Amino acid sequence: MRTLEVLAEVVWPADEKPTQIAGFVASSFSPLAAGAAERCLERYPREGLGRTAVVIVSTSGDLGTATGVATAVDAAKRVGPLLFFQSVPNAVAGHIAARWGLTGPVVSVCPLGEPLEDGLELAALLIEDGDADSALIVHVEQEPDSAQAVLVRGGEQL
Amino acid sequence: MTDNEERGGRDVLVTGMSVASGYGRGLDPLLAGVLAGTPAFAPVGRFDVSGRRVTVAAAMAGTPSLSEDLVFAVSVATGEAGLAAESLPDTPLLLAVHADPDQARIAPGRRWEWSAAALARGVARRSGLGDPLRVYTSACVAASTAVADAAALISLGRYDRLVVAAGYLVDADQFALFDAGRALATDGRVRPFSAGRTGLLLGDGVAAVVLESAAAARARGAEPLARLAGWGRAGDAYHVCQPRPDGTGMARAIGAALDRAGVPASEVGYVNAHGSGTAFSDVSETAALRLAGLGGTPLSSTKALHGQALEASGLLELVLTVAAVRAGQLPTNAGFLGPDEECALDLILDAPRPPKTPYALSLNAAFGGANTALLVEAL
């Protein structure tokens, strides 16, 4: 088993609205995830990234998008085409990975225990198994909104 | 001793599997329909599709329940594996799902109770399994990532046995989203790697597999169906929803799977491609296959027949791939109209072919530039 070394971490301020991302509408989920990820990654040299996994952890999932779709469907109205592109948590992971050149695995999970711990456990597995050298874990929730991000890399082999 | 064991990892075997699809419940109707090349698509009757551009999907009859079908799938897979009831509580579940379909219609404040994690706890409890270990919501690589992670956990010696289950049942919300995103095939057929392809079609998929270490399977005298010889996961770092055109992300996932297994590309006898039937994705996957040395490997995308089962697709296709190779018949790439020069591959057309080797790759890709490759050796 390998330990993890924390390289950077950020908790998104509860009273701060995240910046909108082009192409993402109607829900704070992806802007929150991207905002927390960006601030976390800014604290570490870009050239040290690369085979970094992006792990999105969320119990609520993107409720803003899901309820928007459900409301439109139940009212027999058309669903906005942009909602299609943001309908899964992987979408914002792709946005983060593309902006920062992160080529490790992209994984979204719904935590069963303490969310950040779940994400760190998964990150440790991806690193120990060899598909990633480091991992960015982004924990994002709605109702109420919150986000935090942690960048880790593999440490000692125990 | 296998290559994996020589590298210090433990061999991972598939000892039980089950599936439900648009062909109905069970592996037999799925395998029979796919080998006959008969698509499972039909007009959607499960919910209202008036006003949609596309009105077909590969859905089971009636209005099945995701949790019921997941419990059933786990029970069939553990039964086929011959697991004694007393060993189930020591067997954790990894589940791949979108979310509980009712979640978005619950009053604010209680929606967390309808999370994918809550669904997993219910399925595990009702199946008699131990507490769930992880719940994947990674779109079309959710199930294949769960399989890769389960294999890693067993190979590293953390667990002797795990159950991986996955489920997606065609629903009004996802159907509306895919229709609005113009992702669905307007001619009612999925035509992977073909000229004239117009997109994907959704399909039901609920599947479960029992994975265990070779030592654990041997100790209880289990008959393995396949060995999970290798697995790989890699990201494109390219776009929110489009695959990297040069295919390097998927090629790295394939390379990781082959390297783990110690199997050269020339030994792979079949590829069940992601093959969504969308214009961009099939070209990108072709580039990946060529980069990985698989441009001349017999290949088909069975999504042309059972449809795209989203979070469950990786497991549905893995089960089908194992079953087809074991049956000695590689499925055809249905819906083919004619060659697309950007997708020049060794497509299996006209009739199923016998496999030349026991090794087969099952590939999946998803939004976010996520790619997975699972290499199985049919036993």
Describe how the helices and strands are arranged.
The complex is a heterodimer of chains A (158) and B (379).
Chain A: E1 2-11, H1 29-41, E2 52-57, H2 63-74, H3 81-85, H4 90-100, E3 106-110, H5 115-129, E4 134-141, E5 146-157
Parallel strand pairs in A: 2-3, 2-4
Antiparallel strand pairs in A: 1-5, 4-5
Chain B: H1 3-6, E1 12-21, E2 24-25, H2 27-36, E3 42-43, E4 56-57, H3 66-81, E5 93-96, H4 116-127, E6 134-136, H5 142-155, E7 161-168, H6 172-180, E8 205-213, H7 214-219, E9 226-235, H8 248-261, E10 268-272, H9 279-291, E11 299-300, H10 303-306, H11 313-327, E12 359-366, E13 370-378
Helix pairs in contact in B: 2-11, 3-4, 5-11, 8-9
Structural write-up:
The complex is a heterodimer of chains A (158) and B (379). Chain A is built from 5 helices and 5 strands, in the order βαβαααβαββ. By secondary structure, chain A is α/β, with parallel strands linked by helices. In chain A, helix 1 runs parallel beside helix 4. Chain A starts with a strand and ends with a strand. With 379 residues, chain B is of the alpha/beta class. Chain B contains 11 helices and 13 strands. In chain B, strands 1, 2, 5, 6, 7, 8, 9, 10, 11, 12 and 13 form an 11-stranded mixed β-sheet that branches. Chain B has a two-stranded antiparallel ribbon with strand order 3-4. In chain B, strand 5, helix 4 and strand 6 form a beta-alpha-beta unit. In chain B, helix 3 crosses helix 4 and helix 8 crosses helix 9. The radius of gyration of chain B is 19 Å and the shape is globular.
